[in-house]
Amino acid sequence: MEFQAAETFKFCTCCRLVWPTREGFLSDGNIRLNGYQASFKDPAEGLLLFIHMEAGCGTSIAVKAKSFRDIYTGQVYPDSARGSEKCPGHCLGEFNLERCDANCKHAYVRELLQIINQWPKNKSAQKL
């Protein structure tokens, strides 16, 4: 059975580090955004993929896009451009973190990726 503290944003199942808050997780200098696994039915259900770079760890940590929705305050489009000539296909590549200029309901997640990649880093996790 996996242990997870009651007041925890994320927990590393390998090295047992815990991030009580989303901000602490994003600020941890050992967390790197590595990819995005799109959910074409609902962008909020897509997974942002992180790598925990702590010495000797290297664990992948997935977090649903909806966990970060409030840090993006720009335009969210109601319809998908997927499969159209306006779609550059960024969401099809799991490790593609590029911004998308299409008027597409998935484009806001591409903006989240940019915000997260620019998040100021320090060291804030604690071992359980």
| Number of E strands | 6
Q: In angstroms, what separates the terminal alpha carbons? A: 16 Å
Instruction: Calculate Rg over CA atoms.
Output: 15 Å
What is the residue-mean pLDDT, rounded to a whole number? 89
Spatial strand sequence of the major β-sheet: 1-2-6
Count of discrete structural domains: 1
Please supply descriptive tags for the structure shown above:
single chain, 128 residues, alpha+beta, three-stranded antiparallel beta sheet, 20% strand, disordered N terminus
How do you describe this structure in short?
This protein has 128 residues and is α+β, with helices and mostly antiparallel strands. It has helices at 22-27, 107-117, and strands at residues 10-11, 17-19, 31-37, 47-52, 60-64, 126-127.
Describe the structure.
The protein has helices spanning 22-27, 107-117; strands at residues 10-11, 17-19, 31-37, 47-52, 60-64, 126-127. The protein is of the alpha+beta class and 128 residues long. The model is unreliable at 1-5 (pLDDT under 50). The chain has a three-stranded antiparallel sheet with strand order 1-2-6. A three-stranded antiparallel sheet has the order 3-4-5. It has one domain.
